[in-house]
Design a protein that fits this description.
Strand content: under 5%
Number of domains: 1
Radius of gyration: 14 Å
Oligomer: single chain
Shape: globular
Distance between the termini: 24 Å
């Protein structure tokens, strides 16, 4: 789900059905609703001031795990969630920090839990999911 304050925005109420995280995106792959979610989340994070570098720090770790192989990097994968949380608290602006924490709690945490650490396909789907959010963040002008 998209963060609470975003969901209650009057212009977004009609789009709530499209902006709900679905674990099947990680288990089975992308669909139109995942793309819609990524657009909304990327735009939301940009509007709340989350920088590309904050997202790229996480994306870089995901890529490192992917390149080395999930089976070899199980520990790094499990430590991804605390690293993301640490990234969130380093943000100085409270509004941006809250947006980033909401992003973690509403999108990334369920996605991380959906990844089967024995299955490269689910991890690759997670990688593509995160990459799509990062891409839309940049598309909407994230710096």
């Amino acid at each position: 789900m998209v963060p609470q304050d975003y969901q209650n925005h009057p212009q977004q109420r009609n789009q709530q059905q499209n902006a709900v995280f679905n674990p099947d995106w990680i288990k089975k792959g992308a669909d139109e609703k995942m793309i819609e979610f990524s657009k909304e989340m990327g735009k939301y994070l940009k509007n709340k001031g989350v920088s590309s570098s904050q997202l790229r720090n996480i994306y870089g770790e995901i890529m490192r795990i992917k390149l080395k192989g999930l089976k070899k990097e199980k520990t790094a994968f499990y430590l991804l969630q605390p690293k993301i949380a640490y990234n969130a608290v380093r943000i100085s602006s409270y509004g941006t920090q809250k947006a980033f924490k909401d992003f973690i709690n509403k999108a990334i945490t369920p996605a991380l839990k959906a990844v089967d650490v024995e299955d490269e396909k689910t991890f690759n789907n997670f990688h593509k999911f995160f990459e799509s959010i990062l891409a839309y963040h940049k598309f909407y002008g994230g710096k």
